[in-house]
Amino acid sequence: MLKKIGFPLVILFSITGIILSYMYDQQQIAEIADEATSSIPVEETKPSEEIEDESVVDETVSLGWLGSHIDNDPSLSQKVVFVGSSSFTSTESDHGWPNLVMEETAHAIDTTTIDYEVLTYSGETVSSSLIADTARDITAADPTVLIIESFSLNDNQYYLPFTEQESFDNLSLFLTHMESELPDTEIIVVPSNPFPNALHYLERKNVLDEQASTLPGTYVDHWGAWPTGEGLESVTQNLRPNDEGHEIWSEAFLEFFIDS
Predict the structure, then answer these.
(1) pLDDT tens-place string over residues 9-24
(2) How far apart are CA 158 and CA 174, in angstroms?
(3) Cα–Cα distance between 119 and 66 in angstroms, integer?
(4) Which CATH architecture has domain 54-257?
(5) DSSP structure class, residue 159
């Protein structure tokens, strides 16, 4: 009789022990998991919008040629001086491509104040007289960046006896003089605008393209952005750019200047 009762009791106690042991183990596991979770440090993350805004500002300042120039000395006050012929002013308004460039630049790089000035000499050619007539004005303007037209169009229009090579040599002489007068100034050279049905003028432009690497400063050719044929006739008037022509010129230069 005792054997019959004892055997079921042993089984019951065994099952009860197993259940109690399992419950104890589960409680221990839960406590360990809670301790591990509470010990993990939680990092505070900044809103994604703030991070994006900071990256946009950094990218803007470093854009293009001008951004790299500013990055070299962010504390330096910047002044851009444009020097050119009447091609710097539209035939339809007083607004020219230098103004369009600087308006766009002010929007793109708003962390730095950049002054600018436009000096135009409608009847001047790239001759020794240009040095005497304009060097004093340019030096007085005290630019950190000097953007100068090649004056090829004036050479072609007013003094055709100048050969293509003479025009280039005069330009080189003028730029070398300005480099010596303003040793800390960055110089950028741009060719005069294209116009329809050009003959000798194209030869002057070819000589400039071929030898531009020997000039002081950086040569920025914008002619690839202009239309040809009848399209070129629609954006020029009396050999000079109209409002649409100045838009084309400014957009082409901005690709280099601020990578816009």
Answers:
(1) 445 555 555 554 545 4
(2) 18
(3) 20
(4) 3-Layer(aba) Sandwich (3.40)
(5) -
